[in-house]
């Protein structure tokens, strides 16, 4: 029987701006007050990204609001946070990122049992015409669904 998974935050903008090709799970190195703040849902993944530097995987731009009852123990909301993955996975990702146009983008933050996990996506950036095309497909699907719904009444 698996552990309970509770999604705290999603980065919906990532699917709009990138083609997500592969997903990975990583742990995050956090302070105690940051975990409490995440438990309350005070986390924002907008404009966040991951880098690999000297064999270490880090997430930048992830905003965790200060915990109200945390006083002096609160950390900087936008500080870089180390991600925890196996070394061979990090090296494999490093090789893929150095290829043309690949990025590591945080997709969601969730609790897996008592631990905070980050879902990463190996993604390739979308061009403007790709974004238009995907929104046109979405609109067409919505119209078809609407027509089917009214027809089946």
UniProtKB/TrEMBL annotation:
A cellular component term from Gene Ontology for this protein is: cytosol
User: Is RNA-binding given among the entry's keywords?
Assistant: yes
The segments labelled Disordered in the record are: 131-153
The protein's UniProt keywords, in alphabetical order, are: Cytoplasm, RNA-binding
Q: Which GO terms describe its molecular function?
A: RNA binding
Q: Does the keyword Cytoplasm apply?
A: yes
- Compartments, as annotated in UniProt: Cytoplasm
The coiled-coil segments of this chain are none
* InterPro entries, alphabetized: SmpB, SsrA-bd_prot, SsrA-bd_prot_CS
Q: Name one GO biological process term.
A: trans-translation
Q: What does this protein do?
A: Required for rescue of stalled ribosomes mediated by trans-translation. Binds to transfer-messenger RNA (tmRNA), required for stable association of tmRNA with ribosomes. tmRNA and SmpB together mimic tRNA shape, replacing the anticodon stem-loop with SmpB. tmRNA is encoded by the ssrA gene; the 2 termini fold to resemble tRNA(Ala) and it encodes a 'tag peptide', a short internal open reading frame. During trans-translation Ala-aminoacylated tmRNA acts like a tRNA, entering the A-site of stalled ribosomes, displacing the stalled mRNA.
Q: Which PANTHER family does the record cross-reference, listed alphabetically? A: SSRA-BINDING PROTEIN, TMRNA-BINDING COMPONENT OF TRANS-TRANSLATION TAGGING COMPLEX
Tell me which family the UniProt entry assigns to this protein. Belongs to the SmpB family.
Q: What is this protein called?
A: SsrA-binding protein
Q: Which organism is it from?
A: Flintibacter hominis
Q: Which gene encodes it?
A: smpB
């Amino acid at each position: 029987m698996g552990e309970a998974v509770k999604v705290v935050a999603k980065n919906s903008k990532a699917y709009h701006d990138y083609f997500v090709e592969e997903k990975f799970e990583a742990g995050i190195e956090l302070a105690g007050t940051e975990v409490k703040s995440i438990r309350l849902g005070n986390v924002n993944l907008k404009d966040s990204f991951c880098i690999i530097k000297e064999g270490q995987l880090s997430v930048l731009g992830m905003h965790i609001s200060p915990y109200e009852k945390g006083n002096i123990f609160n950390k900087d909301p936008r500080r870089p946070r180390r991600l925890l993955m196996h070394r061979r996975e990090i090296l494999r990702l490093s090789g893929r990122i150095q290829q043309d146009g690949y990025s590591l983008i945080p997709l969601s933050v969730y609790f897996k049992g008592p631990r905070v996990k980050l879902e990463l996506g190996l993604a390739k950036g979308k061009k403007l015409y790709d974004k238009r095309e995907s929104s046109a497909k979405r609109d067409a699907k919505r119209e078809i669904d609407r027509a089917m719904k009214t027809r089946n009444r």
